């Protein structure tokens, strides 16, 4: 049944801020976002929080709860003890705007640098044919809801602001992998993944996979396969020769894209 | 672009931008409109209240209805058209329904071109699934997250085309230039006024065309599947700009929303659960839908369990299970069961797929439903039934537009998607929304672009107009010690849920109108604390005005229409009426009043060659 | 100079992490176990004795190829006759390199030895970071070659396991406790080796069209299943190989005798 939840919520903006203590009445079956909303409606009308669907589908309400990157709408209060104080802070890899809202434009900038799908022409009947087993890998990656929790938790940029220039982050390695595995795409983005997106900076410590609310196996299914594909092109003379001489690779005749020199 | 890229000072004047087409809303319709306008050569801006890619379209689960005939060669646009009209109880704008059915397949293939990965048939074509009211399996889908796939695909396309996006931005006013020609009394559209939610900084768009793609109104109800953005902004903007709304009395209550836990009450449970074999049962374990088959659908609905069971495997020789009747029928049936005391513990009924399909099948076909119940309700849907009940889901009504161009009665003002009216008549079929977004989004964007190019002399925005708009936006800060906007919103949701819900009566509707009047008065005196930078209280105060006017439209039209049809059920007039069936109710907001006006208007008449489609079977 | 989570513009929170769970457990345990293994393996590898107790050859010393191999242990001859140091040092580079460049072990040691990062959302202590873009870490990209070598080693170890179905005199059809230990070890070695990410890539992962290569797709599906448990097999096979070696050590030093079943 209902009880009083002790919360600490970070309030402030780029110029500074602190954790504020609150007591919020909560009900059975509620999630952290409910508590934040009640706070907003009853005690702190100007508490800034980004949210949308409240069902774990849009990826807006990303924050850090007791230090762990999570979606507020998918974190049930029943996961905590009633006596426990729950600490909520904004994501700590991005600049803060106000309270729990951060400036995630880094991710949108990175999205712009990524060439979109370019498919082979349609079949004569105007349709395209792809086998289910050929689209399944990409479908897993397209489950991504762009909550950017993986980007937030990735130490490459979280702990090193200066790497943001050279590193696109796990969310976009998903995208590279999706396009490279697309059965009808015509471009080769391996060079780009290495040069522009900086996949070599990833040291596969798997935090992206750990925090993904969609359970996408980012490291095992996207980043590592993408690293292996880069190795094919760059570090494995045998495969490289094979691709050059026999042209028997399954990659087809894909035109290679390079990043800015 | 996001607001933080402009300098943060809120008092450093007003930002101005010039475009050919400004699209308000970045859901399926808005993005598709922007892409079409861009392709036609226009300079386009998309503005949206959330971050790009978060729009309510992501919540759509089931699929995109399009008669591609990948599984059933007999399917074609005529069958789809007929299903749509019958689902809407013949109140649809026939021309919109026709264009929709004809163009949907190409729109789906376009998404594939831009990178969407739909589920496939054994031959490698786009797979299609069954849904309520559709004669053939017709919904192109990706598991049960089709909306996400659609929004991501369109988003990536828009980014690829380098279209300007103004994220976390609210439009509060549309401008018209009274000195320009034929756009009715107020002149043509000349632009829009709004603010960055992040900084509170004001922005003026100068543009001869505006495309509204703002979605629906669900946040006026307590139990809804809609997100916070659904405050009827586009409906209200259009009315204040002089455009008209139609069919506002028709609000779709999706039959299956979650009823527990309280924090997710109303959250959608996709119709695919029923399409893939799930059935509805009451507390006594009875498949009650067989008791609720209406006359209108008797011929195509199975009336025994045996026949219904046969349909899942052999559709040619069996009629459809009654669980797959159109949404309005199912929602009313569930409502009756609950009222008769045969509901589940948390006030719903049971939706059972666990006892009918293998856990593997369920997890593969309905991954996000599995996830949703597991994470939010601690229910394993492969083992136990779900508890579900009706939830406010969609408004059929919206801006009255020309069927071919999507232009409203105001020159330069377009509307597409849920904010537009007419396409779905009195009830929308599942899957027809996503296709609607694509078909009419593209048409609106395309036509707006051409309208803009044909405009020789660009309409202008005057300094007085800007001044008035900014004063109106700042008004909530001026009242000291007034009411909290959250309280008024909660009260409005209560009124709408209680008095303008699934089943309506004259007395309750009259009460609701009186209540809404009182809320309007209270809203004039609300006040917000804090400042303009990312202030949710202020944002709500501005959205509240929209919710109030839209709620008034719904209640007023619902009171007027003395019959039951589709998403409008009157306890005091329980059956459809042919007279009302030939009429649209048109709502406008006269410029000198803050009360909504209502008039009757005959429905456009379907040409004879299309009429024959309804005689054959 | 503040960087990382204390960079200008980010929410000002002093703590390196606000996590309250025992996030340090995984790196601490990993550090301890790996260190213990390295110490043990170094001791055993340099020892150069007590690695063969017929019919068992320690996996650390197999194949035995150096000049000092004891009688009966060099099943493949001694091509490195000149090598006078411990024969383990000739071949141990392959399994060691395989594990050092393994995608799972990389995660484990980056977290527990280099603290980069020690755990998710816990700030790492380093000011600069370039990942695997430079020497020496860029060498991890040759993982696939170590995988090929590891397959050869695993084949040799399988051969050794077959040989354990003999008695001390070389007669076939016998079995002891050591045989069981060797069987478990080789099963885990194969589960670990075949679940390798490079293997997954080579058998089918690199394809764009599974549908055109049904056999490789099938192989990929199987490898993917093993790959999902790669971390577990990495740990278990680490233990099993050490246990197998230690068992041989105990036999060779005469501390215990092998219980024979038949």
Automatic annotation (TrEMBL), chain A:
Cross-referenced Pfam families: Fer2_3, Fer4_8
Keywords: 2Fe-2S, 4Fe-4S, Iron, Iron-sulfur, Metal-binding, Oxidoreductase
Xref: InterPro entries: 2Fe-2S_ferredoxin-like_sf (IPR036010), 2Fe-2S_ferredoxin-type (IPR001041), 2Fe2S_fd_BS (IPR006058), 4Fe4S_Fe-S-bd (IPR017896), Beta-grasp_dom_sf (IPR012675), Helical_ferredxn (IPR009051), SDH/FRD_Iron-Sulfur (IPR050573), Succ_DH/fum_Rdtase_Fe-S (IPR004489)
One BP term from GO: respiratory electron transport chain
A GO term from the CC aspect: plasma membrane
GO molecular function list: 2 iron, 2 sulfur cluster binding; 4 iron, 4 sulfur cluster binding; electron transfer activity; metal ion binding; oxidoreductase activity
Hydrolase recorded as keyword: no
Entry annotated with the keyword Oxidoreductase: yes
Superkingdom of origin organism: Bacteria
Location of the 2Fe-2S ferredoxin-type domain: 5-92
Pathway: Carbohydrate metabolism; tricarboxylic acid cycle
Co-factor(s): [4Fe-4S] cluster; [2Fe-2S] cluster; [3Fe-4S] cluster
Family designation: Belongs to the succinate dehydrogenase/fumarate reductase iron-sulfur protein family.
NCBIfam families: dhsB, PRK12386.1
Name of the protein in question: Succinate dehydrogenase/fumarate reductase iron-sulfur subunit
Native source organism of the sequence: Nocardioides iriomotensis
From TrEMBL, chain C:
Record key words, sorted: Membrane, Transmembrane, Transmembrane helix
Membrane-spanning residues: 23-43, 85-105, 145-166, 172-192, 233-252
Top-rank lineage group of the source organism: Bacteria
UniProt protein name: Succinate dehydrogenase
